[in-house]
Specification:
With about 575 residues, the protein is of the alpha+beta class. It has 15 helices and 31 strands. Strands 3, 7, 8, 9, 10, 11, 12, 21 and 24 form a nine-stranded mixed beta sheet that branches. The protein has a five-stranded mixed beta sheet with strand order 16-14-15-17-20. Strands 28-27-29-30-31 form a five-stranded mixed beta sheet, with helices on both faces. Helix 2 runs antiparallel to helix 6 and helix 2 packs across helix 11. The two termini are about 20 Å apart. The structure holds one RNA strand of 77 nucleotides.
RNA sequence: CGGGGUGUAGCGCAGUCUGGUAGCGCACCUGAAUGGGGUUCAGGGGGCCGACGGUUCAAAUCCGUCCACCCCGACCA
């Protein structure tokens, strides 16, 4: 490709809207262009890179028995009502009507469609397992797209679905995918950390995410360096310390004028925050929820949402709190009736807590569970934090930030049952297929690579996914037969299957080198009057500082070998 | 959806407070010089000033409505 004809200009200035490094670099280097909020065009360089990543993904899927197909993006809304996930996805779904006023959705994922597809052609255990997958565009009306390609509303995803005869089969399929995923990240030149995750709207129990560690990552990972366990903070558990445990004393009221926060009350009474009980109020699918947790712990809203099986969870407003008859700042579950009370199990680790008295400027001493109040649900709903103790080995937990570049789920049978995806087993019994699903955002992975592989000059592509292998630069092309030398050389490289971007412009050396560094192709070759005087070509890796001169007549062989060694 | 902000040339911005008919840098075109890390000089093209409505002799500028986009929070590949 001639640089002078390449669609997509490099920009000297950073576009105003670009915040993350990958967004800035991909826009400046001419890989992508925004059309609307969370909607991007891939320009030629970006698209070539995307197809390179997709090829690696295909190879790894095919290697473990995946079979590629293509499912419609346009889907009947009824399918989503049938699965029961219409409400779980909510406003994320793009919906539209056709000319006959039928409701349609633009597919955010394809469990519904694939289950319906597989149901029609699989009737026997002999057909299982099947691992269909596709690489296709998805639509999600995200509340807030951001970070360029990191979080968009229209995106290209690889989604594979596994259908097995039983749980043991699912485990085998799941492990295959874990393996394939690790190969994919490695081949793209980045490291991914596999962490336990919440399954969210997709459903199912077990799920893992593959995180690319990066400062700008949206997710927080809680991990233990000692035993290696790692979880998304949404899922993470930590060992809760025991609060002081004395024989239970009787409840007394104490005046706490103006002391609303846990810190104020604890300091006023002279106890640590862990010796208090905190009340937090939520609205779950419209129902008022009274949450009780020990004063030193924050609530994990994802855990709470899962416990309540709620599609929508938010903090209650002040108005809603007072409408429920609660004295904000001085509330406790003691004496509360006709409101659902959910407690974190930390309130059992200790005795004689300080809690609100449910009247202004007053708290209670020596509150004990279950002696003084009842709860409707009790579970772990606390947020784990860095510095807490690991539940497995007791070491101090660390916190990292990451980009979610893959997410896999053990779905089980809930969708198979809803869609009638049954098969006959060896004994002639009809059983639901056991499902798993496995997603990788291809565009997000591309951005994640840039987040991890760049320097202050630009992107540094690994050979495996670079849009071209070689950046051929001529300096002073109209002098000393520079262009005449470069042209056949360019053709010869293509003949040897080396993909070349040829900067044929008559621009200053600095301009060309800066563009080369920005775009980040692995190997740069420079031909100039100076190199031709010595009958050579300058060869420089993007990832290295030093360049070297290679004799003209041996350079093609040299390049072929060099690229092979780094593939 | 709540809070904050911005819309002026392909990109980055000034001009808006104080109304008088649009400007700078980059990019682009022409020419010349230079010659290995965004070089210099000269000339040039390009604007429905987000949209609609209002005030005014006159609106990028004042008022209203709407739209788009960005940032901070709740969702996810």
């Amino acid at each position: 490709m001639y640089f002078s004809k390449l669609l997509g200009k490099t920009l000297r200035e950073v576009p105003a809207e670009a915040d993350s490094i990958s967004h800035q670099l991909l826009v400046r280097a001419g890989f992508i262009q925004q059309l609307a909020t969370g909607v991007y065009s891939y320009l030629p360089l970006g698209w070539r890179t995307l197809t390179r990543i997709a090829r690696i993904v295909r190879e790894e899927m095919d290697r473990v028995g995946g079979q590629e197909l293509q499912l419609p993006a346009l889907q009947p809304l009824e399918l989503w009502q049938q699965s029961g996930r219409f409400d779980a996805f909510g406003k994320i779904l793009f919906t539209l009507k056709d000319r006959k006023e039928h409701d349609l959705v633009l597919g955010p994922t394809h469990e519904e469609v694939i289950t319906d597809t597989v149901r029609r052609s699989v009737q026997s255990y002999r057909d299982l397992p099947v691992l269909p997958y596709q690489i296709q565009v998805k639509f999600r009306d995200e509340p807030r797209p951001r970070g360029g390609l990191l979080r968009v509303r229209e995106f290209i995803m690889k989604d594979l679905y596994s259908f097995d005869a039983d749980e043991a089969g699912l485990d085998v399929s799941y492990d295959k995918m874990v393996n394939a995923y690790q190969n994919i990240y490695r081949r793209c030149g980045i490291e991914a950390m596999m962490v336990e995750a919440d399954s969210g709207a997709i459903g199912g129990k077990t799920s893992h995410e593959f995180m690319i560690i990066a400062e700008t990552g949206e997710d927080e990972i809680i991990c233990c360096e000692k035993c290696g366990s790692a979880s998304n903070i949404e899922k993470a558990k930590s060992a809760k310390t025991k609060a002081k445990t004395d024989p239970q004393k009787s409840v007394e009221e104490i005046a706490t004028p103006g002391m609303k926060s846990i810190e104020e009350v604890a300091a006023f009474v002279g106890v640590p925050p862990g010796q208090t009980i905190k009340a937090v109020f939520y609205i779950a699918d419209g129902e008022f929820i009274f949450v009780v947790i020990r004063g030193d712990l924050p609530v994990n809203e994802v855990k709470l949402k899962n416990l309540l099986k709620a599609a929508d969870l938010r903090l209650a407003t002040e108005a809603e709190v007072s409408a429920a008859g609660i004295v904000a700042g001085f509330a406790s579950p003691v004496g509360v009736k006709s409101i659902k009370v959910v407690a974190d199990d930390s309130i059992m680790l200790g005795t004689n807590f300080i809690a609100g008295a449910n009247k202004p400027h007053t708290h209670l001493k020596n509150v004990n569970y279950p002696r003084d109040f009842k709860v409707d649900l009790m579970a772990d709903i606390a947020l784990a934090r860095a510095g807490d103790a690991c539940v497995k080995c007791g070491a101090s937990l660390k916190s990292l930030r990451g980009i979610e570049a893959g997410h896999i789920f053990k779905l089980g049978i809930f969708l198979s049952e809803k869609f009638g995806a049954y098969f006959l087993d060896r004994d002639g019994a009809s059983r639901p297929m056991v499902m798993g699903c496995y997603g990788i955002g291809i565009g997000r992975l591309l951005a994640a690579v840039v987040e991890q592989q760049h320097d202050d000059k630009g992107i540094i592509w690994p050979v495996s996914i670079a849009p071209y292998h070689v950046h051929l630069c001529t300096l002073y092309p109209d002098k000393n037969k520079v262009a005449e030398t470069a042209e056949p050389f360019y053709q010869e490289l293509w003949d040897r299957n080396i993909e070349v971007l040829y900067d044929d412009r008559d621009a200053a050396p600095g301009v060309k080198f800066n563009d080369a560094d920005l775009i980040g192709l692995p190997l740069r070759l420079t031909i100039s009057p100076r190199t031709l005087e010595k009958q050579g070509v300058e060869l420089k890796w993007r990832s290295e500082k030093q360049s070297r001169l290679v004799p003209l007549n041996g350079v093609v062989e040299e390049v072929v070998k060099a690229l092979q060694s780094r593939r």
